Every structure is written in structure tokens, then in C-alpha cells.
Amino acid sequence: MRSLCLLLLVACGKDAPTTRPAAVTDKQVATADRLLAIFVDLGAKLDHATDCKEATASLVAARVEFEKMAADAGELADQALAAPAIGAWMQSYTVKLAEAMKGPLQTRTIACHEDEAYMDAVKHLPMVRKKS
Questions:
Q1: What's the pLDDT tens digit per position in 98-116?
Q2: Residue 130 lies in a domain
Q3: In whole angstroms, what is the distance from residue 81 CA to residue 62 CA?
Q4: Which among 47, 41, 59 has a CA at the least distance from the CA of 96?
Q5: What distance in Å separates the CA atoms of residue 123 and residue 15, rounded to the nearest whole number?
Q6: Which residue range(s) make up the domain with 101?
Q7: What H or E segment, with its residue span, contains residue 73?
């Protein structure tokens, strides 16, 4: 999951190009799209969860989805760090990842901060784990 952490670090930039450079492949776009879809889905599920148990189940399901694509995400993160054109594009493209889930995750975490299972599930999401 180190790779997803690296990808999210790349996503923090704001001054990146919004058009896709020639160096960015269809596979890279597809991987970024899959990541974005997981984040958007998780954000929506957290936003609409009726309790901490439901939110925890959503976090666990998202983690499973992240794990399924860990190799592709790791490859993408390595490519983004190695090639300035790819990295710059990923900054503009993947900033959506953080935005899709930031508010719902913060809101739900405030509401469920005393729920041990929820907090454990949050700690095991790839984007909040410490880099190895």
C-alpha cells in the first residue's frame, strides 16, 4: 500500500497541467480512473452512512478494492515520481482523489472517533498509513 500513499502525495500539487501529455498512457489513465472511482464511492458511502458500523463496512470494502489494484497503483506512482510530465499531470488529475473523500471522511471520523472498529478501519486505509 506504500504505492497508494505515494500516489496521494503526488496528488497534492495545484499548478499542474490539466491536459494529458503524450507521456501519459491509457493504462495510467485507467488506473487513475479506478482510484478515483473507489474514492468517490467511499466518500458517498461515508456521507450516507447511518451509523459507525455501516461506515466501518464501507471503509473495509474500499480497502479491499485498493488492495486489488495495489500493483497497478504502485507502478503508476513510480512512473509519476520518475517522469516529470507524468507526475505533473497526475498532480492535476488525482487531486480529485483527496477532494472526493476528504469532507465525508473528516465528518464521519468526528462522529465515530470513539468507535474502535471504525478507527481501526481508518488506520488501515492506504492513504492514511505511514510510508514504509
A1: 777 788 999 999 999 999 9
A2: no
A3: 25
A4: 41
A5: 30
A6: 2-10+25-123
A7: helix 70-82
